């Protein structure tokens, strides 16, 4: 599934839609260049989950936990992870296999420990379509690389 975003507001709104439809135990991986809109998208997801507190990228803390919404929200930013073993120190399995919603920025850096049921979100720029344009692609992390019709309907 691909969604065109022509503004930060579009990106936020799409994230909010994902959050509103998220279920316990879901994991979203988020990949995009610096400045692509990952944090704006994440803020939308948080709003969709009913989280009112400010959501920022946890670059230096690696994990930020929000429990005030309809589901716990675990926001990872693994950009500064030196090795996958650092995720063990955080206790990542408690979050990946828990009843909250995980969103993992820069997830491509820890692919070897990601569960197979992740939904992969890629945000990319295309300056030929404007400075604010983003292409947001969502796929199921499975052998066929695509989402089922039922999954598309949920988003």
Structure report:
This protein has helices spanning 8-21, 38-48, 85-90, 92-96, 149-154; strands spanning 2-5, 27-32, 63-66, 73-77, 101-105, 119-125, 134-140. It is an alpha/beta fold. Strand 6 and strand 7 (134-140) form a beta hairpin. Helix 1 crosses helix 2 (38-48). Mean pLDDT is 87; it is low at 142-155. The chain contains five helices and seven strands; from the N terminus they run E-H-E-H-E-E-H-H-E-E-E-H. The protein is globular, with a radius of gyration of 15 Å. The longest helix has 14 residues, at 8-21. A seven-stranded mixed β-sheet has the order 1-7-6-2-5-4-3. The N and C termini lie close together (9 Å). It has one domain (2-154): 3-Layer(aba) Sandwich (Rossmann fold).
What is the average per-residue confidence, as pLDDT, rounded to a whole number? Answer: 87
Number of helices: 5
The geometry reads as: globular
CATH class: Alpha Beta
Q: How many β strands by DSSP?
A: 7
- Corresponding CATH architecture: 3-Layer(aba) Sandwich
The class by helix and strand makeup works out as alpha/beta
> What is the helix fraction of residues, given as a range?
25-40%
- By CATH, the superfamily comes out as P-loop containing nucleotide triphosphate hydrolases
Computed over alpha carbons, the radius of gyration is 15 Å
Output the CATH topology: Rossmann fold
In summary, what is this structure?
By secondary structure, the protein is of the alpha/beta class. The chain is built from 5 helices and 7 strands, in the order βαβαββααβββα.
Which helices and strands appear, and what pairs or packs with what?
Elements: E1 2-5, H1 8-21, E2 27-32, H2 38-48, E3 63-66, E4 73-77, H3 85-90, H4 92-96, E5 101-105, E6 119-125, E7 134-140, H5 149-154
Parallel strand pairs: 2-5, 2-6, 4-5
Antiparallel strand pairs: 1-7, 3-4, 6-7
Helix pairs in contact: 1-2
